[in-house]
Amino acid sequence: MKVKAxxxxxxxxxxxxxxxxxxxxxPDTARVPLEMRxxxxxxxxxxxxKEACVSTVTGRRARGTLEAVEPWHTHGFGEAIPELLTIGxxxxxxxxxxxx
Length: 100
Description:
Layout: E1 2-3, E2 8-16, H1 27-30, E3 34-42, E4 46-47, E5 51-55, E6 61-69, H2 82-85, H3 87-94
Antiparallel strand pairs: 1-4, 2-3, 2-6, 3-5, 5-6
C-alpha cells in the first residue's frame, strides 16, 4: 500500500542497538534496542514498511520505517473517579472562594 506525500504518519527507527546502550541502564533494558516513534507529515510517497522521512509539526525531520497512517492515541486515563470530580469545588469552598 502506497501512502501519499503529505499524509500524517508514524515512523519507527532504532536509536541505539543493545550493544550501544549506556552501561548504567538495568540489564533487562540493556538487552533491547532503544527505539523511537515519530509522527509527522510524509515527505515523499512511500509504501508501508519502507524507509520514509517525515516532517513533524515543529518542522523537525525524522527518518524511519513507515508503520502507521493517520495514527491516533490509543491510551486513556481510566474511568472517572467520583471522589476526584468534586475536589476542585470543595477545595475552593474550603479556602473561602466561590465553589463554582
